[in-house]
Every structure is written in C-alpha cells, then in structure tokens.
Amino acid sequence: FGDLLPELLGGSADLAGSNLTIWKGSEGIQNNPAGNYIHYGVREFGMTAMANGIALHGGFIPYVATFLMFMEYARNAVRMGALMKQRVIHVYTHDSIGLGEDGPTHQPIEQIASLRSTPNLNTWRPADTVESAIAWRSALDRKDGPTALIFSRQNLPHMVRSEQQIDDAAKGGYILAREQG
Fold first, then answer.
1. Distances from the Cα of 14 to the Cα of 17, 47, 60, angstroms
2. What's the number of domains the chain is made of?
3. Active-site residues: which are they?
C-alpha cells in the first residue's frame, strides 16, 4: 500500500529482510532525499527517537521495525513518544519462543505486557492476516498517539470467523468460541 500512502516514511534497525519492511517501492533517502525508506542500522533507540522527531515535525506517518526482543533498546523513546502522543507505528516481529536457533536472547517474554502498560500506546498482537490488516488500518487511522504492531516469526494459519467477530476485532477483541456447559 506504499503507493497509496506517500506520507509513510520509515525503516528498520538493520532487519528489513527479516521483518519485511522493505518493499519493491522502497527508495532509500540516502540516494534520494524524496525517498521513503531509512536504513537506520543497528540502533533501535536512535531509530525510534528519530521517528518521534519525524512525527513532531509533521507531514509524515513514521514507522520503525525491529525484533520484539530488541524493543528493549528503544523502550525510553517508545515511552516518550507515547507520552507526547506522537503518531508513530512500531512494527515488532519475531514474537516467539520458537526461535531456538537464536537462543534465549531473542525470545521475548515480558515485552508485550510492558508495551500494553505504556500510557497512550495502542498495542496489537494479531493472530492471522485478517487481524493484521485490521491492526494496520487502526494504526494508519490513529492520529492521537503511537501504535505497536506485534507479529510472530512463523506463518500462522487463517482463522475462520464471523463478520461480527471481524467487526469486534477492530474494537480490540472478540470471543472466538463460547465455553461449553
């Protein structure tokens, strides 16, 4: 949807290939000041602080991306952006303890609870592509604060749900199945 959102400007902390934030229409600002992609390098705090500055400047919808575990390096900038109610989209991928090859340093445990308790930060953890689309739409529509979008590393199966459940997902939650008995 990059062509439809020329105001979208952002990038990744040197993980674009892993968190899929670079797309065929991406053009780095280092080669073209009118580009739409920033190669931040391995610096989550600097990346997030710069996104806050871009949001404060106005005219763009900044997004940043890294592995969920590495949001720890950006925590203060995430919190400051939330306290200032700045419109930044934080994309966190690799939410999984199934990252055995990367070891425990890459396995997030307490990060979602911390993000959910951050004032003014909307936090989404979609279960599949339908919920991911709903979460992205919410993040793009939101103008009064930041949003965290948290995704797994693994492909997830599509969940069958009713139109009512889809409508309720946009409100933040729904009942997937009623209890028995």
1. 8, 10, 21
2. 1
3. 44
